[in-house]
Amino acid sequence: MNKEQFNAIFPNIIQDLVSLLMEKQNLDFENALVVLYDSELFEKLSEEETKFWYFSTEKLYEMWEYEQKTGKTMSVDYL
Fold first, then answer.
1. Most exposed among 3, 24, 60, 61, judged by the fewest C-beta atoms under 10 Å?
2. pLDDT digit string, tens, across residues 47-70
3. How many domains is the chain built from?
């Protein structure tokens, strides 16, 4: 995927993930953004070459939740 394509889909991925954080964590929009932006997952997701954008919103949420519980980023060796 080229940079232009990635930049086109990235906001949609973030929007969906923030919506899921709001729903599952009972957060308002601002706090959902804060917890996402403060995560390692967001850093990885922001880099096209990591291919984290390939995961479903539900899988990304699971990865975020794992990071919150363990302090580690979930391994994605199978990509």
1. 3
2. 999 999 999 999 999 999 999 999
3. 1
Residue 34 domain-assigned (yes or no): yes
Identify whether 28 is part of a domain. Answer: yes
Tokens matching residue 51: 């291919």
Range of the domain at 12: 3-70
- CB under 8 A, 24+ apart: contacts of 10-16: 10/45, 10/46, 10/53, 13/45, 13/53, 13/57, 13/60, 14/45, 16/57
Report how far residue 61's alpha carbon sits from residue 20's, in angstroms, rounded to the nearest whole number: 7
